[in-house]
Amino acid sequence: MSLQILLDLLGTFVFAISGATAGAKRQLDLFGILVLSFVAANFGGITRDVLIGSVPPAAISDWRYLAASLLAGVITFFWSPLVEKLSNSVLVFDAAGLALFAVSGTHKALAFGLNPVMAALLGMLTGIGGGMVRDVLVNEIPTVLKADIYALAALAGAAVVVIGSALAISATVYTAVGALLCFALRLMAIHRGWHLPAAKPAGHALNRCNQEDESR
Amino acid sequence: MSLQILLDLLGTFVFAISGATAGAKRQLDLFGILVLSFVAANFGGITRDVLIGSVPPAAISDWRYLAASLLAGVITFFWSPLVEKLSNSVLVFDAAGLALFAVSGTHKALAFGLNPVMAALLGMLTGIGGGMVRDVLVNEIPTVLKADIYALAALAGAAVVVIGSALAISATVYTAVGALLCFALRLMAIHRGWHLPAAKPAGHALNRCNQEDESR
Amino acid sequence: MSLQILLDLLGTFVFAISGATAGAKRQLDLFGILVLSFVAANFGGITRDVLIGSVPPAAISDWRYLAASLLAGVITFFWSPLVEKLSNSVLVFDAAGLALFAVSGTHKALAFGLNPVMAALLGMLTGIGGGMVRDVLVNEIPTVLKADIYALAALAGAAVVVIGSALAISATVYTAVGALLCFALRLMAIHRGWHLPAAKPAGHALNRCNQEDESR
Predict the structure, then answer these.
(1) Following CA atoms B42, B43, B48, B53 in sequence, which dihedral angle do they give, to the nearest 10 degrees?
(2) Which of C15, C29, C85 is the best substitution to test chain A (most A C-beta atoms within 10 A)?
(3) Spatial distance between the Cα atoms of B147 and B128, rounded to a whole number of angstroms
(4) What angle, 0 to 180 degrees and rounded to 10, lies between the N-to-C axes of helices B30-52 and B116-137?
């Protein structure tokens, strides 16, 4: 097993834990938790593969992604106190998974001939997509839409890969730099509470557009 | 029209009723109800077809799926008291639809060359996908994530098809056995209240991962 | 740049404003708002392209869609009072975007060989898809499911295109008629408060189907 695959599966495993944890907090049954594990870990990659025309997606055709996702779900279900104790480490693993998915997603999009900007965005999507659907399924506004620097860290890592591949430096170098940049940005955002500016409460902008305001 | 297609359309019809009913409960207008009918009945199959690369999906290219979905939506909209009276039968039809979709979805995934485990999971997805999106659209945590044995029944039926096709017994036999197993499991779960273990309330596991806790 | 592309990008821009506004109302950060802008403006077209097998979707392979979406998001973020003042015009632009997307989506689906009914529905989906996902991401029941004549206006415009292309009249004529019909229907619905009949509160139809009723 190559280092690339090993890291990829580690990322899958850690993201699956985040899905399982979200399910456990809402007291879903074992099966619901396993579904959330798989979705959180693989939805980003599946969406990327569908958009670039690489079907069936790797997460569907390679059983190891499924195995890593289910293993994480089962562990979280039966040993949630352990997972709780490890939550600090999990945050670090989560940042590592984000970094790796962003970088490898960008590589794959470039290999399928997408333009550089869209390749970087698909790399970002690979990193953040799973968490978005996880939150939608448990009826939350996706954390990535409102939280600390998360998607931006993924985008920064992806951008390094895109720029590096245009400059024809060694792939190993720019891949490592991109992943480390994303990882470092995310950890700094966690530890220092960095975040992007939020929109000021805008009053009733466009509320005539949104019938839900009136019908509620 | 073959028996296969007849049963498939019956499944579509019954799932569409479940979508229309969810919309009627929230007092959506007729069009919203028809959209929910179509989504609940066809999203699972459409997702499967996109993932295995069979585009346009059958639910898009064959008008009969649309017709069955809209018919169910219109009936539910105008005769909801009747649908209410039939709700027991509908539960039975729903279990039948689940069984059929799981089995036929697995067949299709195998025919497109997926490995056995993923073919079974895609069969399951065909059965449960529509209901998941139906619930997300009406702003609920998907029932399948938290309810009685539902996805598991679909997976059991799909597994029979996968195993049967590997053993080279008659396709008619293992298809019927798989569908009946799913159907029976689901009915037993309803009548006897069978369910999977749920996660114990886990306190604050991983809550440092989930910024939404703090920002609410 | 052809008139077609110009109008298409204008539609993208206006839908992106609707996404950004939805995000600003929930005080998302800048990045979350940009994600919502892109999703609201492009999800409908991306879904259509995936379903008809045209990958990578235009919104992914042509950078101008991204640029229009981000521009709209940035403007909304920094000048939301201005956007608020323009909200009447935005409603008009939104109707124009809906009309254009419905018509151009139908054209594309016909060009990929879909049957007429499904081509019209995919045209409608192109118009309404982005707004549906925008609302799901901010944890609302999609406006299009419950609001004034919106999806129906898109469907009417799409139907004109389908019928026109079958009758072999000039494409310019039926495209313009379809877009104008959709545009006019939507504006009339806004100004006169037209809406479709809603389902009567149906009591407890099918509630044995929906375990969430009991578990809440």
Answers:
(1) 90
(2) C29
(3) 12
(4) 160
Rounded to whole angstroms, the Cα distance separating A24 from B199 reads: 5
Neighbours of chain A (3+ CB pairs under 8 A): B, C
C203: left (phi over 0), alpha (psi -120 to 50) or beta: left
Q: Tell me, what's the pLDDT at B161?
A: 94
Of B57, B81, B87, the CB nearest to C208: B87
Contact present, A104 and A159 (Cβ < 8 Å): no
Q: Which residues pair with B198 in a beta bridge?
A: A29
* C-alpha span between C18 and C13 (Å, rounded): 9
**Cβ contact (<8 Å) for B66 and C141?**
no
Q: B interface mutation test: which of A14, A17, A25 has the most B CBs within 10 A?
A: A25
Low-confidence residues in chain B, pLDDT < 70: 1-4, 7, 86-90, 147-148, 199-216
How far is residue C142 CA from its own chain's centroid?
A: 11
Lowest-pLDDT choice from B77-91, C29-43, C154-168:
B77-91
CA distance C92 to C87: 9
CB contacts < 8 A, B to C, total 125
Specify whether the CB–CB gap between C150 and C189 falls below 8 A.
Answer: yes
3-state secondary structure C34-71: HHHHHHHHHHHHHHHHHHHCCCCCHHHHCHHHHHHHHH
* Residue contact B196–A29, C-beta within 8 A: yes
Tokens of C73: 């998001």
Instruction: Note the pLDDT tens digit of each residue in C45-73.
Output: 899 999 998 888 988 888 899 999 999 99
Contact A29 B195 (CB under 8 A): yes
Span of B162-166, C147-151, C159-163 with lowest mean pLDDT: C147-151
Task: Tell me: ipTM over 0.90.
Answer: no
**Contact predicate A117/C65, CB 8 Å:** no
Higher pLDDT, A88 or B178: B178
For residue A107, what are its two tokens?
A: 């590589």
Please report which helix (H) or strand (E) contains residue B156, including its range: helix B151-167
CA gap A146, A197 in Å, rounded: 10
**A199 with C33: Cβ contact below 8 A:** yes
pLDDT at A199 over 70: no
Angle at A102 between CA A97 and CA A104, to 5 degrees: 95
CB of B139 closer than 8 Å to CB of C139: yes
**Is C66 close to A201, i.e. CB distance below 8 A?**
no
Strand partners, A29: B198
Q: Which residues of B30-39 are buried (b: 16+ CB within 10 A; e: fewer)?
A: bbbbbbbbbb
DSSP code of A2?
Answer: -
